[in-house]
């Protein structure tokens, strides 16, 4: 008979493999925006203090298992996703990035033409 404890451990994601939800992404982006307002980003790089503050903020909001590497990996993934979407939409007429909703937006007619 299999050991239940081993089965549970095998199905649990490791601390290195963190699955990010939209809420977690939002918490990350808000924490980074707060650090940017504090001028904790220089020459396109986040300061050590910024990372420490973001880890602390996310540890409270998400859980104590968040690390600097989790944050760096997620930021890279988000940049890649944004770059793909930007490349797809930025040359098309009628689409615009909404910084509040963090989505590309267009009138219904524009979407319908794009889908065709």
Describe this structure in words.
- With 116 residues, this protein is mainly α.
- It has five helices and four strands.
- The protein has helices at residues 4-11, 22-37, 48-61, 68-89, 108-115, and strands at residues 41-42, 45-46, 96-98, 103-105.
- Helix 2 (22-37) packs antiparallel against helix 3 (48-61).
- The radius of gyration is 19 Å and the shape is elongated.
- It starts with a helix and ends with a helix.
The major pleated sheet works out as:
2 strands, antiparallel
The 3D shape can be described as elongated
Strand elements, count? 4
* Total helical elements: 5
Biggest sheet: strands side by side, in what order?
1-2
Mean pLDDT: 84
Instruction: State the secondary-structure class.
Output: mainly alpha
Strand content: 5-15%
* Computed Rg: 19 Å
In sequence order, what are the helices and strands, one letter per element?
Answer: HHEEHHEEH
Low-confidence stretches: 1-13
In whole angstroms, the N-to-C terminal distance is: 56 Å
Helix content: 55-70%
Give the gist of this structure:
The protein has 116 residues and is mostly helical. 59% of the residues lie in helices and 9% in strands.
């Amino acid at each position: 008979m299999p050991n239940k404890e081993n089965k549970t451990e095998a199905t649990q994601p490791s601390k290195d493999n963190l699955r990010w939800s939209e809420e977690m992404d939002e918490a990350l982006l808000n924490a980074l925006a707060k650090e940017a307002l504090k001028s904790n980003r220089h020459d396109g790089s986040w300061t050590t203090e910024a990372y420490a503050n973001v880890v602390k903020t996310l540890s409270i909001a998400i859980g104590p298992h968040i690390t600097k590497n989790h944050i760096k990996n997620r930021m890279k993934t988000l940049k890649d996703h944004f770059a793909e979407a930007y490349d797809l939409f930025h040359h098309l007429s009628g689409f615009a990035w909404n910084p509040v909703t963090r989505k590309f937006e267009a009138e219904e007619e524009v979407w319908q033409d794009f889908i065709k």
